[in-house]
Amino acid sequence: MTDLYAAQRAMRNMRNAALQRGVVAILDVGTSKIACLVLRFDGDRFAGSEGVGSMAGQSSFRVIGAATTRSRGVRFGEIDAMSETERAIRTAVQAAQKMAQTRVDHVIACFSGGAPRSYGLDGQVEVDGNIVSEQDVARVLAACDQPDYGAHREVLHAQPVNFALDHRSGLGDPRGQIGQTLACDMHMLTVDSATIQNLLYCIKRCDLEVAGLASGAYVSGISALVEDEQELGAACVDLGGGSTDVSIFMKKHMIYADSVRMGGEHVTSDIAMGLQIPTATAERIKTFYGGVHATGMDDREMIEVGGDSGDWDKDRRTVSRSDLIAIMRPRVEEILEGVRERLDAAGFEHLPSQQIVLTGGGSQIPGLETLAPKILGQQVRIGRPLRVQGLPQAATGAAFASAVGLCLFAAHPQDEWWDFEVPVDSYPARSLKRAVRWFKENW
């Protein structure tokens, strides 16, 4: 546990140093692509009004460099071949640096694997005096009992999602309010520690310092969901290459995250096996002709498969588009069924809003917007990331939802609004010191 605290503290110090220098890189390590954006921050990092919320303390930034490369050595969102992933990260970062015409030393990274697991914690304390102070907030955060999440897992995100003061619940920020009993609900996300360590080691081999880590499910949600959806409750489903991330937001906080270990690359491999063609050809056919909703026209639309086997007859094969759809649809349905299971396990049907937003590269499959409501529920839309200043047109699609979300995360890390300096020793020992330190150092 001590190593985890040390690593998180070092990352936060590096992030502050990078933001003071004004330049930081964003690295989205995915199964199908690795994207790198270089951000330049203007003025004070916490420019703007004091407060708590999804846009509180947002500092202005601009994307000055962007590059993507095909991902290598990553499976299910986790590093599989270290040297190949290192080479791909170097390629993306160098291209982004060249475009930005500046050197970056610090990166903030996000990843999709690691078997994320959500926990709901709660705690309650009596307020010292009548007015809630920062110390009272810190004590109630410390009173949340930390679950036994296993030896080989690490905390990636931890933030309070709701405060209650006496009989009033749903408070965003209880500081300065009058009451006797303060209660808090907190969401904690843990991931497999080996996944994090491999990613940190790989980035270090690229001569870069990690200034922050985030879950792909979290950053996709903050970029693809509009403010009303984050407030009323909505689920974000990021259909990536190797895994599909699921996150649920409520009151502008993430309250649940999970992932399905299937994605767009599984659809591609099904096409490659079904049509007996190379993976690269299968990817091209999926991109240009794919779909999940067959019509009468598709029987007559023939697709030339192509190939380079040297056998003229084999290389000139054609298949109908309806045959292609018949291969793709079962796998897409299987992925959506997995998402439905995760949402049911989280109790999504009890939320006041039933909005589901599909994003990520896999969400661009034609016909998905008509298939998804049949499996997931009625209110489904395809989400594109928010526009950020300086973002190239090529990087505004749904496939870049997590990269754009990571920019927003870098600009205003929500967890740090609750990182108060607490005179821990002045309170009863119990597990308070350990718990306060756990929250403070797990941004």
Q: What does it look like?
A:
With 443 residues, the protein is of the alpha+beta class. It has 13 helices and 18 strands. The strands form 5 sheets. A 5-stranded mixed β-sheet has the order 3-2-1-6-11, sandwiched between helices. It has a 5-stranded mixed β-sheet with strand order 14-13-12-17-18, sandwiched between helices. Helix 5 packs across helix 12 (401-411) and helix 7 packs antiparallel against helix 10. The two termini are 15 Å apart.
Main traits of this protein?
alpha+beta, 5-stranded mixed β-sheet, 13 helices, disordered N terminus, Cell_div_FtsA, cell cycle, cell division, cell membrane, Cell division protein FtsA
Task: Write the topology of this structure.
Blueprint: H1 2-21, E1 23-29, E2 33-41, E3 61-70, E4 74-75, E5 78-79, H2 82-100, E6 106-111, E7 117-126, H3 134-143, E8 153-165, E9 168-171, E10 181-192, H4 193-205, E11 209-215, H5 216-224, H6 227-232, E12 234-239, E13 244-250, E14 253-260, H7 264-275, H8 279-289, E15 302-304, H9 312-315, E16 318-320, H10 321-345, E17 355-359, H11 368-376, E18 380-382, H12 401-411, H13 432-441
Helix pairs in contact: 2-4, 3-13, 5-12, 7-8, 7-10, 10-11
InterPro entries: ATPase_NBD (IPR043129), Cell_div_FtsA (IPR020823), FtsA/MreB (IPR050696), SHS2_FtsA (IPR003494)
Subcellular location: Cell membrane
Function: Cell division protein that is involved in the assembly of the Z ring. May serve as a membrane anchor for the Z ring.
Placed side by side, the strands forming the largest sheet appear as 3-2-1-6-11
Low-confidence stretches: 1-6, 44-58, 416-436
- The biggest beta sheet, please? 5 strands, mixed
Rg over CA atoms, rounded to whole Å, is 23 Å
CATH architectural label of the domain at 117-191 and 419-441: 2-Layer Sandwich
Tell me what portion of residues adopts beta-strand conformation: 25-35%
**Overall SS class:** alpha+beta
Q: What sort of overall outline do the alpha carbons produce when their principal axes are compared?
A: globular
CATH topology of the domain at 117-191 and 419-441: Dna Ligase, domain 1
Number of strands: 18
Number of helices: 13
Assigned CATH class of the domain at 117-191 and 419-441: Alpha Beta
Helix content: 25-40%
Q: Quote the average pLDDT.
A: 81
